[in-house]
Amino acid sequence: MIKIVHMKNTLFLILVFINTVMGVAQEDYTLTDKGAITVDGSSTLHDWTVTANSYSGGLVLNDKLLDSISLEVDVVGILSTRGATMDKKTHNALKMDEFPKIKFVARDVVFSEGDNQAISGTLNIAGVGKDVVIETAIHRPEGRIRITGTYKITLQDFNMEPPTAMFGSIVVGDDVTVNFDLVFAK
Description:
Layout: H1 2-25, E1 26-31, E2 36-42, E3 47-52, E4 55-62, E5 65-74, E6 78-80, H2 84-93, E7 101-110, E8 114-125, E9 128-139, E10 145-154, E11 164-165, E12 170-171, E13 175-185
Antiparallel strand pairs: 1-4, 1-13, 2-3, 2-13, 3-6, 4-5, 5-7, 7-8, 8-9, 9-10, 10-13, 11-12
């Protein structure tokens, strides 16, 4: 009887230890407002930039594996310096009424600091999800995780029609570049 009790106690202690170690190894980070997300594009008249002013996200680091990375951008917060007309055209192209958020989710990403770090995930824009691989730079300044990079998107790959103006005489180019500087903190 003493052996069984001792064995149960030992098993209990081992389970508590494993649970404690697993809990300590996992680190949760939240996206801060210290970064920026912009989109650069062109048209037949001029180049343009819009800025994402409202976004959220997080990542879970478990030892050397990013268990998950998530990012949500509120389409209504994507604004330009060119005024309400361009903002409305941008929101319409992104199908804001039906799909108010742009989403990116990645799972089981091998974490490594430095430049040229590929992150594979699913990017969902205007209701269309695509598997993508995004080249990034990952650094850990002052206990934070900073992920930076650029990613080129072809609007028609996400079933978006490039916006037009002036009765079709001004047309937005089909390719845009997303620039991101994401800072996550515990």
